[in-house]
Predict the 3D structure of the following.
Amino acid sequence: MTDKILMVKKGDPVTSVNNLLKELLKSKKIQALLVMQEVPSKAISFPVLISDPDKLNSNVFAPVLPVSTASVISKITKIERSFELIGVVMRACQIRALVELVKLNQANIDNIVIIGVDCLGTFPVNVYSDFPEKESPTQFILNTIKKKNERSNYIRTACQTCKNPVPINVDIIIGLYGLDPKKELLIQINSEKGQKLLEDINLEAVKDAKNREKAVKDILEEKNQNRSDFIKEVGKIKGIDALTKFFDKCINCHNCMKICPICYCKECLFDSSVFNLEANKYIGKAEKKGLFKMPNDSLLFHTTRMNHMVVSCVGCGLCEQACPSDIPLMEIITPIGENAQKIFGYSPGSDIEEKVPMVIYKEDEYQEVGEK
Amino acid sequence: MVIKMEEFEPKIVGFLCNWCSYAGADLAGTSRIQYPPNVRVIKVMCSGSVDSIYILRALLEGADGVFIGGCHPGDCHYLDGNYKARRKAVLMNSILDTLGLEKERIWIRWVSASEGQKFADTMREMTEAIKKLGPNPIAKHWNI
């Protein structure tokens, strides 16, 4: 692990990082780059896969996450792994999701070099596109590195309660915490892949590493505190009445499942015809209770989805962001995920070698469930 | 209408594995061992193949209990399906709490092909236990 400093020119870290990435693309060390870039209307930033350095106009700090970058990498490497090196610039939650997808054999990172960016949090899509402050969302969020309370008005619940906004399991980190992004950015090289990529780039030595260490420790403590406070506050959704009330507005669009990086099934059972019944069966169902809500099986969908993904839930909160009915899904997913992960002693996205809990077992475990 | 507790006959959905528990239930039948008729048996190839969706479907449709029968540890026809079934049950238990259901509504037991008596005993035991728990509270909800 080597720490270096990228000097920021003209107080503009976005352009400085863009220039660095441009150099990488020009050097042909990476064949393509997956990075956030503003769409022409400037309404939002989306991941783009880019090969032409002249067309690169990236904004790695844009505080928005419209789709899962981990799912995008899964899409790129699903049929066949990449034979040429691709650089990907991602946030911590998406790197955790990517690690989970690799473990689930849904993505291949053999020829992927992961560049993680310290995350200050992201805004909901519509807040980002119609940002009420004078500054641009990116300038605003970068300015909050010192006055963090200001960003808490805007960032998503998932980001407030993030497990760890500092990337792990990456080749290179672009660091913000503990630095003044108007002057300098941390470039931490964590692997040989990363070392090779940056060997010709002019970077300076770190003068004072203590600031960074303290800032990272502080932010982890703060997020952990937020997370346990949040769980304490919302952990009361228990029992069928509370649960049906919580999901009352669900319109069965299944957006939460489609956007979720962990919900990887190529064809979800709920999108199949398995639950399409003959008319007389629907009438039979009605006669059983006198009536039932249509379209049916909304709670079945949510509870099944929970069962399938909570152990690997990385807390990115895209499910909540994608919900057209504004159901605050994190209020239910966060406590259940935390609990399930504690039961199996599993921390999603933290260790790429560790197997997911549902494929391993010990002969003498959980004997209180079942019997000896 | 007041339903007296004595009248409550629980509905139990039983997922029995093809190789052990189903054969065990079969043996109970051919040996004419009596057991409560509350269980509705569904044969599956392996207890490990019982996905959470089947269990949840049964419970949300109003079943009062779900029984999963597998081979004894070490005897699984597919080597480790029953161990995986147990892990799934552990996960399911953590979610049942949110649904407001007691985790005693899901039973996972090992019944071999030779244990007709054990199958009958387990069914009796489970039926009694579910009778004590009372009807599934979800059964009367229409907005699920």
